[in-house]
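Both lines are retained for reference:
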Amino acid sequence: MSTLDVLGVVGTWVAVLLAVIALAGILPAYLLYQRSRTDRYLAFDEIDDKYGTSLSRGYELLPGKRFFRKEFFLECTKAPDFNQIEIRRDLTFFLRKDAYSLTGWVNFANILRFYKANLSSNGKIHVVQQEALLPVHRGWLLLLGLVDRYCSRESRPDLGLLIDEAKTDDMDAAGPMAIYGLSGIVDHVSRSVQSSFDDESPREAPVERVRFRMHSADHMATLGTKFPKDDISVATLFFLYLGYVPGANQSLYFLQVPKQSDVWVTENPRNEEERKEDIHLVWSLQRIEDHQIPLHHKRLAREVGVKFGIINRLHVDFVGELVDSTRQKELQNCLISKEPTAERYFLVKSERNKRSWMHRSDLHCILFSLLRLRCCSQSFLFGLDLSDGNSLFRRIFNSGWLVQSITRAVAVFTDFDLQGEKEEALRMAMSKTLERASDGENRSRWSRRLMERCVELDNLLDQCFPCSSPAMQAISILYMLEKPFRRYFNKTDAAADAVRKLDILLKPNAEQICLPSINETVGGKNFFFDFRRVFSGPGFDGNTIKEQLPYSQAIIACLKGHLRMAMWDMVLPAKPFSRMYTKLPSVFHMDTQQLLSEEISDTSDSSSDLRPQEPVIVQGEVMTIEETWESDGEGHQVLSRPNAIDIDASSESGSASRSESSAPSISSRRNLHHTS
C-alpha cells in the first residue's frame, strides 16, 4: 500500500472521528431542544417553586432552559387517615423571601407539608394541555377545610384573615360558591370551564379542577404563631362537621331535631287542625345501631379512617301516650306541677296545641358534653343548621346579656384569694370581652375578636377557679338550660354583701339544686338535676359533691355557662363547604392557576409585567360593618351586611386604612408562554 493510500485511509477515519465528535456535541443539544418542546417540559417550566419543595431547579444546559429536575410531588391520591394525623403548624418556611408560589397547587402542597400531614413525596403530576395538575384525593381538601375552618363569605365575612388584616382586591374575583378559610380561598371550577380548552385535543378527557389561592406568606407565617398548638383534634372536627357532639367515653350525640308533623300524620291520619286536645310529643336520646347511621356519614367516615363510637340521637319517643309508666307519670306531674323546674321534663317547643318535651336528664348530658368540648378562637364547622328556629340549641340558649354576666363576675372578685398576676389577667380579659359582648337580648354573632376573647376568658376561668368541679359544672349546665335559673341571677345584686354570703344548696341524692330566697321579689326556687347520670353513672356517690356552693362561685359558674352559649352561637355552618365537597370525585386535580374567576382580566398597563403577583396584606384598622343574622326562607343562616365597607364585623371602629395602591388581580399562568 502506497503512502497516498495510507494517508487516504487515515484521513477518512479522521473525518469519521470528527463527524462523530460533532454529532456527539450536536445530538444532545438537539435532543434537549426537542425535549424542551414537549407538553411535560412546558408544563414543568410553568411551575413556580423557587425553593424546590416540589420540583428542584435542575441544571441550565441550554440558555434559559433547565433539565434533570428532581420531583418531590406529594402523593395525595390516597385518602388520609384522620386518626393518624395531628396537625402541627410549623410555618417558618413562609418567613423566607419569595416563599409565596405563583402556582396554586404548590402552595396547597406546602401547606400540607408544613402542617405535618404525613404525606410522602413520591407522587405524580398529571399534564393536561401543557399544564401540570396535582391529583388530590378529596379527603385532603376535607382535612384542610376542617382545620382551617373553610366557610362561605356570608358566614365568615373576615374571609379567613387575621385581625387587622385587610382584604386584597383579587379576593372579590372568587366565584359565588367559593369558600374562605384561614389558609386561603378554594373555588371549584365548573365542568364547562374545564373543557373549554379541550376541543383542541379531544383525546384528553375533561378533569375536575379546584383552584386554590393561598393568603399572603406573611399571613401564613403569622398564622403559625397565632393559632393555638392544642387545637381540637382532627377526628373531633370531623364529627362536629357531620353534626355530632362528642360526649363522654367516645360517645356521640346526633342532635337533628325529629320531624314532629311526620310522626303525627303517620300515627294519627285525622286532620290535625280538627283536634282540640293538646298533643304531647316527647323527644329522647336513643342509642342507634350501626345500620341506622346515615349512609353518607358512614361512607365519608370509612373514606377518612374514622370509626363511630356509641351514637345517641334524638327521636320521638312517643306520641300521645308513654309506654313506660314511670315516665308517663313524670310527664303528668310536670303538666300539673306548680314548680315545673323541679320536675323531670323540659318544654322544648310549644306551638298551638302541640307541645314537645324532653327529659332534663338527656339535656343535662348533652350540655355537659358542650362544657367538656375544647374551644378554639377560630370555632369549628358544625353540620346542623343552628339558625333554624327548630334547632335544639336555638330553643334553649340565649347568649344575650353577656355584659351583665361579666359585670356580676367582676363584682365578686374580692371574695376569692387570687394572686396578683392572675387577678390582673382575669380583669384584663373581662374588660376586653366587655368591649365586644352583647348588651341586649340579641344572640352573639360570628366575630373574630369576640370569639378570641371569649375563649381566652373561658381558659382563664378554668385556671383561676374550680370550674371543673361537679358542683360548678352543675350550675353552669342549669344556667345554660333553664330560663328561670338565668332570670334569678339577673335579678340579684351581686355587689350586695348580704347576697354574696348566701349559699346555693345542692342535694345530689334528691336530684335537686335549691336557690335561696333573697327578698320578696326574688324568691327561692328548686331545680331538678340528675347528678348520678351526668357525672359518675352507676357508681355515683352523692356525698362526693359539695352540698353548699358559695354564691360567688355560682356567679363564676354562670359566667362559664354564658361564655359557652356565646361561643356555640358563633360556630360556623358546615353546609357551604359540604356543598362544594360533595360535588367532587374521589380524586380531583388541583389547578396551577390561582385566579378565581375566568372573567377577570388584567387592567394594568400593557407594558407592565403580566406575571401574577403575591397578594399584599394591608396592615391597619378595618372599618366596622353593621351585620345581622337573617333567614333566607329555607332555614339557613345568612349574614346581612348593609352598608358594608370592609370585611370584619368585629374590627375596631374607625376610619378605613385600605391602601390606594392595592395589589393587582392575579393573572392566569396560561397567559405566559415561553418561546423555544
Summary: The chain has a mean pLDDT of 79.
